[in-house]
Specification:
The chain is mostly helical. Helices cover 76% and strands 0% of the residues. The model has no long low-confidence stretch (mean pLDDT 81).
């Protein structure tokens, strides 16, 4: 994957597929959401560790260093900024 991981696109795809398929909704295990949240937490931790070493890193640098897509990195950076505690 040249573009890297894009959690926003993955979320949108997952939501669309679940909404379109009654059969899938009937067999979907609630643990899938937990697995996705765990995966997203791992990505956030990677970004946090990178930013500890490179606090002035740009989105492009995060993309290059961690193999994320531009929109994925922007999503994670914005999420971390919103959750930042003073």
């Amino acid at each position: 994957m040249d573009e890297g991981i894009d959690p926003t696109h993955m979320c949108q795809t997952l939501v669309r597929k679940v909404a379109q398929s009654k059969q899938l909704m009937a067999v979907t295990d609630p643990d899938i959401l937990v697995l996705f949240e765990d995966w997203l937490d791992e990505l956030e931790d990677e970004v946090k560790r990178y930013l500890q070493s490179y606090p002035d890193a740009t989105t492009a640098q995060v993309v290059q260093a961690l193999g994320l897509s531009v929109s994925g990195a922007a999503f994670l950076l914005a999420k971390l900024k919103r959750e930042e505690k003073p």
